[in-house]
Amino acid sequence: IVGNYFGSIALATVGFAAPVTQFYSFLSYIFVLGTQVLVSQQLGKGNLPMVCKVLTSGMVAAVSCGTLLWAFCQIFLNTLCGWLCSSSECLPLLQQYLNGFSWGYPLGFLFLVSVPLLQLDNDKKRAFWATFAMMVGCVSFNLLNVFYLHLGMLGVGLAYPCGCILASLVIITHFCNNKYVFKFKIALLNVGSVLKVIAQGVPSSSFYIFNFVRAFVLNHYLFETGGNVAVAALVVANTVSVMVSVVAIPRGITNTLQ
């Protein structure tokens, strides 16, 4: 949508935002992976009170971290964009894009942490519908932006929080349903559990720090050698890579099992 309707400069802008996206992934997956590991361990022991304590602590910590990241982006937006982007054409667009996109950080963290927990709690349908709601929200808002709202790159960024809101509404219904084992209770929030989640999550999520550095270095190298078009081309290449992996990885696993 960005490349087709807003052009290569807008697509390059998304590329310049990649280091922030990778850092966002690093922070969020600390809580995603750490919470999954601890919940699975306690579930295997049959310790349901501890399961609820861990998931409550992990979810609250994730949303809190997302809120702090949003605040950081809002306060230091101009400085951050100046550090990320060397292109005078892309800089104002990057400011708009990250301004909109960062509003999705708190609920984005919630979405990423909760979907695997729903699957562990035997609610695969709701996990699917939460993911579907995220996709529909993002695509629908992007199309509204293109044809009706005309918010430019601010609208492209705001598509993400729109998807997060819809997905979160689906997720919340799970924890309001008494037939499921996992319970979210704010009274169970425990600092010790938060620290254990972080300790479990950091080793596995540290891969995203490499991606953060790689994205930053590549962006500046490509811009110096090929300009905005080269940065935009990298966005396209990364998108194609993700699309191929979505198909190739499940097929590889299936073939291995057969």
Word description of this protein:
This protein has 258 residues and is an all-alpha fold. It is built from eleven helices and no strands. It has helices spanning 2-6, 8-16, 18-45, 48-75, 77-84, 91-101, 105-120, 124-149, 153-175, 191-205, 207-257. α3 runs antiparallel to α4 (48-75) and α4 (48-75) crosses α10 (191-205). The longest helix has 51 residues, at 207-257. The radius of gyration is 19 Å and the shape is globular. The two termini are 38 Å apart. Mean pLDDT is 89; it is low at 246-258.
What is the number of helical segments per DSSP (H or I, 4+ residues)? Answer: 11
State the end-to-end CA separation.
Answer: 38 Å
Shape annotation? globular
What is the string of SSEs from the N terminus onward?
HHHHHHHHHHH
Give the beta-strand count. 0
Helix content: over 70%
Structural class: mainly alpha
Q: What share of the residues does DSSP label as strand, in percent? A: under 5%
Unreliably modeled segments: 246-258
Average pLDDT number: 89
Short précis:
The chain has helices spanning 2-6, 8-16, 18-45, 48-75, 77-84, 91-101, 105-120, 124-149, 153-175, 191-205, 207-257.
What structural keywords apply?
258 residues; mainly alpha; disordered C terminus
Please write out the topology.
Layout: H1 2-6, H2 8-16, H3 18-45, H4 48-75, H5 77-84, H6 91-101, H7 105-120, H8 124-149, H9 153-175, H10 191-205, H11 207-257
Helix pairs in contact: 2-6, 2-11, 3-4, 3-7, 3-10, 3-11, 4-7, 4-10, 5-6, 6-9, 7-8, 7-9, 8-9
